Amino acid sequence: MFTLILSGFFNSNKRLARDRVALTATIFIAIASLPVALAQAPVRPGGALPTLGDTSELSVSAERRLGDRIASSIYRDPDYLDDPVLGDYVQSIWQPLMAAARARGELAPELEERFAWEVMQIRDRSINAFALPGGYLGLHLGLIGAVTSRDELASVLAHELTHVTQRHISRLMSKQSARMPWLIAAMLLGALAASKSPDAANAAIVGGQAAALQTQLNFSRDMEREADRVGFAVLADAGFDRQGFASMFDKLQQAARLNDNGAFPYLRSHPLTTERIAEARSRLQLEAPGPALPPSAVVTAERRALLHALMAARARVLADTGVDGLRPMVAEAQRLVLTATAWSPREAGVLYAGALAASRLREPALARSLVARLVTAAASTGDAALTEPVQMLALEIELAAGKTADLPRLENARGRAGLLLQVRSDLAAGRVQEVPGPLQTWVSQHPRDALAWQLLAQAYGRQGQTLRAIRADAESRVAQLDYPGARDRLKAAQDLVRSNRSSDGEASNYIDSSIVDTRAREIDQLLREQALQEKLDR
Length: 538
Ligand SMILES: [Zn+2]
Hints:
The protein contains 25 helices and 4 strands. By secondary structure, the protein is mainly alpha-helical. Zinc ion binds next to α7 and α11.
């Protein structure tokens, strides 16, 4: 009985991926069914339910498999977002934290190799971040939008990273039961769905039930203390301002006081005891005050604050899909009077949010006028770290407006965001010949970049290279762990090769078709292994 309910939930998930209401409803139904499912779980020999409180930890590979299972559901959720600009920003914080954890010996080589280490963006206005099994982490856009510095964002990520490196999840899972990964995955997904901004009519009804289930998956006080203590050290070693930890606590406490309506799930899963806050403060006091910052470091700090303001503004706009939320951001930017050279982080954020919000409201003229003021102000700093995101926003606004001619080229665009945006611009301008080269290089180094594979598929499609287009599309499915979807596409590619052979009598591109055959065999093998593993897991 319980297997039926849960597998139904996972299968229907895929079919309903584009229907947000239906998906949310499905998750809630699955949650609501869980207590029933537990009560009706098959009675094992000996007459007992599966034992909770198993002492053995979940193995690294079992935890990764569980994480993959959860991640593949999140990829299909309409609120999963892969925004390359925010992604690059998060990575600029995440990578130094990883390096510091590695250097401190907190990150075991086996764990580093086997886990995903992927920070997933979730389009949600609530302030939340969470660690999932297998090295996946979730970050709500609401949290990026609410923190006032990159150090605060780093402190949350360092804390969550530590839950993963210290294997807290595997210890929790084994306590629940290593033998019920389907149930654990469903409970985690259900708790996540319920922790989202309450925009579904029945969220309140199921919320309590989900919260009750979630308490079984909460980290212990000792785990929280360890995540604070080790996370603080990792944060400091990575070169972030240690004050970030304390100010993050202050911010959360303030938010909780102002707004006690359950909109801060991060607080629920990480209760802010006065003890935790006091410990964070005393850690700061133990540190000897450093020497005064040299003038160059002060300038860098100011620019970092400006860049953070831009990224937080972007997160606020992308988290808000409604006119009611976007309109006030535009109005605030229109009211702003800015002298071209002096701009504060607050003003920069207001302008950026206003321009992007106007673009999303399909008011390109207004978006252009707002971003133009931002371009002037950013250019006055002469800092590439600031001019680049502003130029990218200007190009995004033109692309959203449907412009195809005279699109500005990104000068020395760096990072993934720059590459992918330039590719989108080239596609819009019909420069399809220029696209595959750089993208091929990129995906060969980053084979799990689904968005890059999708753009590559588009480029090949526009060039009439159908076989390559289908294969790139299949790889984008693989990247998001949708192996059945990938197999369907590869089969379609194989059919195409066969029909071409019979119609024109000559073999189509031999290399391309043999790549397709090889990948089809590999994916079939993966699917067989997955099916076998699922049998073992049940
Ligand atoms: Zn925690």
